Known about the structure:
heterotrimer; A: Rossmann fold; 37% helix; C: 5-stranded mixed β-sheet; 3 helices; 19% helix; elongated
Amino acid sequence: MAIEVPENVVVTKLDELASWCRKNSLWPMPFATACCGIELMATGASKHDLARFGAEVFRFSPRQCDLMIVAGRVVMKMLPVLQRIWQQMHEPKWCISMGACASTGGVFDTYAVVQGIDRFIPVDMYIPGCPPRPEQLIQAIIDLQDKIQREGTIRGAEFELASRQAPKRALVELPTYGRSAAMIGPGR
Amino acid sequence: MSLAPSLERPPQSQDYLWTLNFGPQHPATHTTLRIVLELDGERVVNAIPDIGYLHSGFEKIGEKLDYNQYVTVTDRMNYISPMANNVAWHHAVETLLGIELTPRCKYIRTIICELARISDHLLSTGAMGLDTGAFTFFLYAFYQREVIYDIFETLCGARFTNSYTRVGGVMHDITPQVIEKIRRFVKTFPATIDDLEKLLNRNRIFVDRTRQVGVLTKEEATNWSATGPVARASGVTRDLRKDEPYLAYADFDFQVCCATAGDCFARYYVRMAEMRESLRIIQQAIENLPSGPANIGVDERTTLPSKAQVYQTIEGTITHFELVMLNRGFTVPSEESYAAIEAPNGELGFYVVGDGSDVAYRARCRPPSFIHFSLFPKLIRGHTLSDVVAVLGSLNIIAAELDR
Amino acid sequence: MLDALKTRLGDAALSEFRGQSRAIVPRDDLASTMQWLKDDQGFDLLVDVTCVDYLSYRDAEHRFGLVYLLANTATNERLTIRVYLDEPDLAVPSMCDLWCGANWLEREVFDMFGIEFRGHPNLKRILMPEAFVAHPLRKDYPLQGRGERHNFPVLTREQA
């Protein structure tokens, strides 16, 4: 362009429009492992009807989703799967940690349970409760919509050059349990 | 669908087989389990289940929490019928401690067990319908689950992780509002079952996808330790409610529902029929609910007293302290015992080892889902890939109970 | 049934608690006793196989107690068979040939306690990852584990 457009004006408006579009068409990826998954199903089913908030299109393929809802405890064997699915999702993406188990490990302070998924992947929204009621999940989605409207996509990673995105999206081979040498501690 | 045409070839030329990974994050697994399938075109030659994706150490926690606290963890074991787990756990503990319940408590526990059975069967048949393409059925079923959630919420304040039972009793007595709600449910639910049956029983797609799929014979069912609806669909008549009557089941008139086909449709059909029988039990129990206390008296020093008793009576205060203080607690024999109930999914039992303290030395759960899932490779062999979801749905595998 | 069991195993091996009959079987007789119970006494349902680690149990003489819960579907009798094992020889014959349902139950006991079932078709870990080294339900393994649950790479927003 010949004229130097004040960059911030246009970009801000477009950003807001984009954020508005995004927040009203969240496609959740239900990473339902345990009890919270049943409440997640209840939220999507007839009585609570998540469709009222534009977030009812549950897609089980991570490539099509932009919101991961981790519902239930994540254990040692499952965590590499969770990380892999998080990597497979395209930008922009958000993550809701639903329930006490996903957020902190909950009552399961045991050898196998990961004590909070936020130790290993980024989380945008935490929902307390064991399990949270459907209303709480709906509230979390409304709050996340506010956050998306306010902050946009945080880093604008989706606007990066394709060449810069490629290495991120490439499926980096994460070590599953036991493959890494560090796992085998002394004395066992 | 019957067996896909058999293409048996000598093993040395089996390099045409290809391997498909199914799960652990797949919509039809509902929760987390993984199956590695060896396929010949669309025909499943072999299935290798890989479980443990939700193993969270339930039995190890049972060695740290006392007999009343552990009930909260059992909720999360089979999370589509938590009430049945609560009852199973405390049934096992009371067997170990030698506690006889009051008649009213037995009736209350029977009612909640049967409500849990209905809600479990609603979800398992609903999810099976969902997987085989019947979404409407799922929505109908889930609406009725909400009604049962509502009853449980009025009863104990929690939607579905209830933690309602206590050693020697229940959290608190059943209230007239709950009785009213259960009566209304008993009246309205038969119409819903009729609707549900109309949706699927003669539905061509559903029937074609489930008849003759995953057939289990009677002898195999017993030999593979199957119990509950899975075994009864194959013609096994074993039902602990009739065979070893616990709680108040001896008082009621009900039938054990069996089928002989042993296929996925039979398992679905048995579950639908069991809901009607459960409803009959609930109706008889709620109309004949004995009066009297729900919990064992305070003097026995086994049941936690209510708040009012703790604050207002000296016996209540003493009992509370006796049970809550770290070095007091229950009088537990240094013995081991096993007690089981007929949970919605099959025989759910606990092998409890007491060592004199108020924490179990070992709390082993006998998980029906675990045992039923070991049947899966056998049931699916020779069928097509699309039958995998039908067989999984009919076995009703709950990952938290599978892995514990 | 109980009389037959008494003549076979001797009086001392039998006990009863809250109406449940239990029998202690020496390890060497386990295979033949189980065969006899299934074929001649009609115990056709193997309800459960589990194990108890008596490491910190008061007055315990043995380290492990293997428990088989059997049921007779025709007469509704139940029987608990117990076998005591001590380190280092933790091997018992597998029951997979008698009851197919024993397959996964024995694998779980192997995974959680490290009991070896001789003759098992596929004795591998079932719940814990393959490379896991400890046996979590043993009493000398801590509830919170030994740090295995924290040992994963961290993904940040920049990375993915």
